[in-house]
Design brief:
With about 100 residues, the protein is of the alpha+beta class. It has a single domain, classed as Hypothetical Protein Aq_1857, Chain: A (Sandwich). The protein contains 2 helices and 8 strands, in the order αββββββαββ. The longest helix is centred in the first third of the chain and has 14 residues. The radius of gyration is 14 Å and the shape is globular. The termini are close together.
Length: about 100
């Protein structure tokens, strides 16, 4: 994970910590379709890729939880997607301000 992706994950973890009593794990998950709608209602399609989310810790097996610089996270990325990634590093996606990508 790049420092930029870690910074985004930390900010998101801080945000979800206040939801329903906390105990959330940041997740990097593969999506077959991603889109972003701006305030004017215009939707931009980004196609398949990684998305940033959170799952309650009770729903994530302990062996699936990783930690980087105090940020706990999990990944739900199909092995064939990981195999195609050249560097196998999670980074911030330059197309959006809140998405991540696998390099």
């Amino acid at each position: 994970m790049t420092p930029a992706a870690l910074k985004l994950a930390r900010a998101f973890a801080d945000h979800v910590a206040g939801v329903d009593g906390g105990n959330w794990i940041v997740t990097f998950g593969w999506c077959t379709r991603r889109a972003q709608t701006d305030r004017d209602g215009k939707t931009t399609e980004f196609g398949p890729g990684l998305d940033l989310g959170a799952h309650h810790v009770r729903n994530v097996p302990a062996e699936a939880i990783w930690e980087a610089d105090g940020v706990k996270y999990a990944m739900q990325i199909p092995s064939e997607i990981v195999a195609r990634a050249e560097k196998k590093i999670i980074d911030v996606d330059p197309l959006t301000a809140t998405a991540v990508r696998l390099l």
